[in-house]
Structures are given as structure tokens and as C-alpha cells.
Amino acid sequence: MTQAAAADAAGGVLPGAPGESLQVEVRSDGDLQTQDMNLNIGPQHPATHGVLRVVIDVDGERIVRAQPVIGYMHRAFEKLAEHRDYRQIIALVNRHDWLSAFCNEVGVALAVERMMELEVPERAQWIRTMMCEWNRIMNHLMFVSSFGLELGAITPMFYAFREREDIQNLMESATGGRLHFTYTRGGGLKDDLPLGFLKASEELVPLVRRRNQEYRDLLLGNEIFHARTKGVGALEPEVALDYGVTGPALHATGVAEDSRVTEPYLKYDEVDVTVPVAENGDSYDRFQVLLDRIDASCDIIEQCLGNLPAGPFAAKTPKQVKAPEGAIYVRTENPLGQGGYYLISDGGKQPYRLRMRTPSFNNVQMIPHLLEGSMLPDMIAIMGSVYFVVGDVDR
Amino acid sequence: MESILTFDSLLFTVVVKVLVIVAFFLVAALVVGYLEHKVMGHMQDRTGPMEAGLGPVKHGVGQLVADGAKFIQKEDIIPRSADRWVFAIAPGVALVPTLMILVVIPFGPGVWAENLDLGLFFALAASGVTVIGVLMAGWASANKFSLMGAIRDAAQLIAYELPLVLAGAAVALQAGTLSLVEIVERQNELVLFDTIPVWYGVPQVIGFGLFFVAAMAELNRPPFDMPIADSEIIAGHMTEYTGLRYAFFMLSEYAGMVVLSALAVVLFLGGWYPWPGADLPDGAWGAVIGTVTTIAKTVILAMVMTWARATFPRLREDQLQRMAWTILIPLALAQIVVIAIVIVVLP
Questions:
Q1: What is the DSSP letter of A99?
Q2: In this complex, which of A19, A159, A224 lies closest to B315 when CB atoms are compared?
Q3: Mean pLDDT over all residues of chain A?
Q4: Which residue of B85, B228, B312, B326 to mutate against A (max A Cβ within 10 Å)?
Q5: Contact between residue B62 and residue B53 where contact means Cβ atoms under 8 Å apart
């Protein structure tokens, strides 16, 4: 029986609706007998960044039980990849996590290139490294702004989108895309950097650094922000590792696991990569790590600009890229955490299987662990700071 | 002094007063709403509404009028499981107290509707009624988010109402009267150390701060907007409302900003006097200057509320309670004691 039918049967009143008489049992110790309220947060809810659904049981404002329900945005990218050639897959993988599009492209391109044992030109590798970092900053700015918005501070949203716009314009000048760049090709890049790109990059880096300091002042310098985030949703490092949490959420617990350092790809072994960490693993630390990572990315971009060699932007590849028979697993540090690309090829022009390990999926796993026992408003502070993109969860 | 709206015929007087108050109520809400759009827009590196205009004047001045026209056209949806009558009248219940406070607020010499001997008491009592409308809306909506918002609002009432009343009581103590008109007059006569004329906002600066913070909490303005926290409980008690009824809630928020700011101006910032110890000319000019002064001060206070909205994240309900009971209320009580002692000791 649907809810509406149940309502009709009860004379037009839904169970628990105001029309139904209130029954409260008073126990002998004087406590009111209360019942937990079941509440659906999402799939359409302002706090869930898309269509994540979290079913929670609340006792007043305290969350007793929380269960994320995923799959509302499942678009079968992995299956689809089995029916597309490698060139088309590049355009496919920058869509599941739309905020880290470029980093995703690079992961797949790396997998194909390593299988083909293709020598990628130096210049292409440096440009890829730089673009990855620009993409990382863009991604983090988004979460900086939305976290403020969820805590009720509306202004950071508008500020952060200024820099996002600048960076988007910069990346658009090179790639032609603003969200889905599709700039990578197996063996290199689609095109060389346009005239003026390097100069614009050089000018933009100090600006981003200066504005980043403004966000520190605006949010980290606010007492209400401290009250809302410090000690909220504290994650222990062991639990984080058990759940496979990576990225800023893991670094905030003090574990500095970062593929750019532990298993360098592209040119990350030739630049100094700082991995900002914090101690407590609470919402405040996760946010602080995010801001620190923007600065760290700025450093990397400056090093890339200084080291960028001349030369071809793509290797000579056959018309039809075909990975030889075999399997490979490639790890990359995506903005939200560790991305993994497991590629099995039967030697054809399409992969036999492409399995993606996405950071958001694992980050969402720890939501029940963090939510249980916290307050309803803390749910926002927690879910806004474990950093996930729903498309990246569902793929 | 008599109200300038007093005429020979009682019926005519009542009608004129009601019309003037309703007209002021609507215009004030529109003006403050528009200013909030623009001020907050410029604070946030954007322009705010730019297109809708009245005649040749653009810059979005007609935005709220257009919004109002839109609200009127919207379908008035009442959820099936809602408590129809309660749901329908709740926005009115939330709106009327704001109108009632306007009755006693003096805007200039003679520019008031009623000069009640218990004016301050009346204003503070009426302001507390709004929460009943919110509770009705939250309960009758048959929506869990609405209910949570309403309960939060009721819980918030416990936190802010005491500091609000205690801060008002300290003013009444110093002025020796509850009539808002007389509070303004006495305030203008206050001279510190026989030399510096000041308003109550100076000796009672703590009370002024408490009153203002409590007023923001009463209006559910950020950082105290937990009852309508959009990222947590959608829009609290307003979640199920559409069209004109929703507009009523918005109207009572903006008009509430004006009314409580005006009350703060009357209590702490010298009411209609442009500077402490000022002397206004008798007759029409005095009334005009006084009214303009009060409205200017009121708008400035309302803009401070907007500023707070653009600056602060939202507090948590329990954090507000803790702040109220450990900081605001003890401060307010301490201030009353100090004021009382000073009143007795100093002649």
C-alpha cells in the first residue's frame, strides 16, 4: 500500500501527521517515551552536492543511525568504456568526476601509454603536470566555497568563483573546454599551449595565493566557523585507512599518503611536492588541509612553469591506438583522493575491462561512522568536508 | 503631545491610522528588502538585481514589486495531510505582531499611531507572538523539516527573549517610564557628568549590543537562522508554503528588521533626535526632520543586520543556547543591577 493509499484508509491522514491523535506514554521514571524520527536527506537536498541520499534516524537533533544510499547517478561509465576506443574513453572518464576532469583523463592515458610502452615527450608531461595542478586548485576552490555555503556563510561562494572563472578561462584557452577538457591524447596532448598561456599562468598564481589568504581570514578566522567545525566529525587515521579514505580527508588525520610522492607519475618526481597534513582529522582540519593544498599546488605550477622544455607535445602514435594484451593498474592522486585505473586489454582497439577506483566512493563509506551520534547541523559540516562528487561515487 | 493622525471623528482616526501603518509596513519591507539585495550583492562582488525598474529608474528597484506580483500568481498549495486551517492562517499570525509593534513606535514628534503608557511592554510582548505563527506553520505542514524548523524556532525563543526583555527593562529603569515617546524625550535630556549629552546607547552600550543580537535571533537572521537553515532543513517552517502565504513570511522577516531596528533606535539611539541634546523646531518641520532621522538610523541598523548575514556562518542551536545562558543573560542581569545602583546613587 502506498503512503497516499494508507492516508486514504486512515481518513485522509498520514501516519504521524497532525490530524492523527498524539499518543505519548509516560514511563514510571517520568521520562517521556520518544520515538526516533526517520528522515530522508536527499536525493534532492541542498547539502548533498547532487543526488546522494542519506537516510538518517534522529532522536531530536541527534543522529542515531545514518545510511548513505548511492546509485542515483549511476551512468555505467565502466561498461560504456568497453564499447569505446581509447580516444573516446578520454572524453568519457572526465565526466564521472566533473570537478577533476583533467586528472581523470591523465589516469587513463597513463594506463594506455604504459601498456603500449609509449615514450611521451617531456613537454607534454610537464604540461600535463601543470594542468593537473590547475585542475586541483579549481576543484578545491569549489569545495572551499560550498563548505562555507553549507555552514551558512554565503559570501565565500561568490568570492571563490572569481578565481574559478579565471582558471577556467586559462584552461579554456589551452583545451577549449571549461569543464570537460578532453585535452589529453594517448601519447601526449591534443595541442600545444596557446600563445600567452605561460604569462597568464604566471600572473594568476600570485593572485590565487593572495585570494587563498583571504579565505583563511574570512573562514578560519571566524569564531563561529571554529565552533561549528572543531572537533566535529573527527576521523581516526586507522579508521580512515580501513575505509580506504584518501585525499584531503586522509591527510587531515595526519597520514601523508599521496601518490604524487609515494609513487610519482608524470613529472612529480622532478618537482617538490608538499603534502599538507593536520592532526585531528575533524572538519576544521579537513578544510584547512584543502586550503593548504591550494598553496601547495601553486608551488608546483610555478616549478612547472620554470622547467617547461621546448619540444613536441605528442608522441607519434598509430592511427588506431591499441593496448597490447595484458592488464595494468595505474594510481594517480586526484584532487579528491587516490584514483585507480585498472585496465585489462585483449589487444583490441577497445579495453576488455576498465575498472576505476574513485576516491569519492570510499570517502562516502565513512559517512555513517562519522554521523552516528552527531547533531543534525553537524551532518552538514561533516558531509561538506569529506569531499565527494556524487558522479564520482556512482560512476 | 497628541498623535498627528488624530482627527475629530474617532472612526476616521482609526481608519487613517490603520491605513498609514499598513502602507508604511509594506513600503518599509520593500525598501529594506531592496537594500539588502543591493548591499549584499556589492559586498559579494556582484551587482544584485539590475533589470526590473520602476519607469526610467532601473537598477533593480522594482525587483521586489515584481517578486510580489509573481507570488500573487503562484498556486496556493496546501499539502493533503496538512492541517488546513492552521496551515492557512499561520502566515497571518506570524505577520500581525510586526504590524502591532508599529502602532507604538514613535517616528518623530507627534508621528506615531498610539502613545501607550505601556508602549515598551506592548512592543516586546507582541514581538514574542510571531513564534506562535511559526509553530503553527511547522506543525500544520505535516513535514518533518518544517516541524524541526518550528521546534528550533521555539527553542531559540527561550534563548533570545530574556536578553531582549532584560535589555529593554534596563532602559525603562533608567528612563523611569515604559512609554516609548517619553523614553525618547528623557533620553534627549540625559547629560553625563553635567557636560556631555549622550543617548542611552552610551551608558547602556552592553544593553544595546544584547538587544541587537537578540533582535537578530528573534528575526532568524544569520548567524541565528537555524530555524530556516536552508542547507540543513530546507526552509524550516516555510518549506511547504507557496505563493502569497510564503510572501507573508518573507514580508514579516523584512518588516521585522525595520520594526526591531526602529525599536532599538528609540530605546538606545535617541529616537527622532539627530544628535544628543538636539532641539527640534515645533510643528511640521520638526515632525519631518524627526521622521527622516529615525528612518535613517533604522536603515543603518538594518544594514548592519545585512552585513552580518554576508559575513557569518550559522551557529548551532545548542551553541546559541549556551551563549544566551552563559553570556547574554548574565550580562543583561548585571547591567540591570548596575543601572539600578547608579539611578539610586546619582540623583
A1: T
A2: A224
A3: 85
A4: B312
A5: yes
Residue A44: HSE in the Cβ half-sphere, 13 Å Cα cutoff: 0
For residues A118-137, give the mean pLDDT. 90
A:B CB pairs within 8 Å: 96
Domain boundaries defined on chain B: 10-345
Q: What burial letters (b/e) apply to B40-72, b meaning 16+ CB within 10 Å?
A: bbebbeeebbeeebeeeeeebbbbbeebbeebe
Under an 8 A CB cutoff, do A152 and B223 touch? yes
Interval A9-61: pLDDT, tens? 545 444 445 555 555 555 666 666 677 788 888 788 877 777 888 888 888 78
- CA A309 to CA A127: how far, in whole Å? 10
**Sign of the CA dihedral with A300 first, then A306, A312, and A313 last:** positive
How is residue A374 annotated by DSSP? S
- Give me the sign of the Cα torsion angle B112, B118, B121, B125: negative
Q: A224 vs B312: CB contact, 8 Å cut-off?
A: yes
Cell of A160: 571563490
CATH code for residues A77-394: 1.10.645.10
Between chains, do B309 and A154 touch, taking CB under 8 Å as contact?
Answer: yes
For an interface test with B, give the residue of A149, A154, A163, A371 to mutate (most B CBs within 10 A): A154
Q: Exposed/middle/buried for B160, CB within 10 Å: 0-12, 13-18, 19+?
A: buried
Q: Looking at the predicted complex, does its ipTM rise above 0.85?
A: no
Parallel, antiparallel or unpaired: strands A337-345 and A37-41? unpaired
CA–CA separation, A245 vs A359, rounded Å? 7
